[in-house]
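Hi R.,

Here's the chain you asked about this morning:
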Amino acid sequence: MDGILIIDKPAGWTSHDVVARLRRLLREKRIGHTGTLDPFATGVLVLLVGRATRLAQFLSGAEKEYEATIRLGYATDTGDLTGEPRGPVAEVPSALVGPGVEAALATLRGEIEQVPPMYSAKKVGGKKLYELARRGEEIERKAVRVNVREFEILREGAGEDWLRHNADGTCDLRTRVVCSAGTYVRALAESVGAALGTGAHLAALRRTRAGEFRLGRAVTPEELQARTEAGEEFLIPPEAALPHLPAQHLTAEAAGRVRHGAAVRAEAPAVWGEGAHVALLDERGALLAVAIYDAAAGLLRPRVTLAAEK
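And here is the predicted structure, written out as tokens:
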């Protein structure tokens, strides 16, 4: 059982919860995800199954897309709705209008630096930051450079109905974010609040895309169980994970060599640079391996092999 699963992660589940559930359901120990989602968040979680887990290194840095609801009025100690409020609800400026919010979002587009939140899974000195935070510890963190390619308001309609006012005096701003791996959307929410002169936190987060995989291809754990019990096909083939890599189709003879880990002659060396990763496909288009191009020898040397020996 080798391939890719796109799960629509439910709220309240950790990414590890999803992996554990699927290991039991599919009776397969070799399952891993390519990028965590916070427990309160929902949406696209890419899982690799069987030998496809060897492809994780090529997917973990994929661009992500989110729908994020930013709540204006107060900050929390975690930066999201699961945390404790930092002070009372502040009155959101009544003059808050579209141009002001647009300007705040504009300052956060492009390459920016973020300090990882204490309530995050990032490891410092071998310890996850959230483990330290739960013990009441706070340590210095180095800023990391991330790329926020798109950050825009999600309007409900064609008019100015873009802010939802809540009974407690807060306002909700729905946004769309396209960003590099490692971007903390909760930190973006806090930065938007700071730019608008009010506290803010992330009230909802839904990942709609991870790399090439969109929400439309995702299934819930319950839907996957129903498909499994019905005997339906549910795995996406491993080669679907690597459309960003150049590929070379192999003859039956060359495919046999790759299955045993041997190098093969590169057919289009002029378009590849030294050390380029190239997907090696059999005559049917199935992924056999990911190779590294050796320019001096004109060879593709398998680095990660998926195909079983025959």
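One quick note: DSSP finds six helices and 19 strands in the chain.

Cheers,
M.
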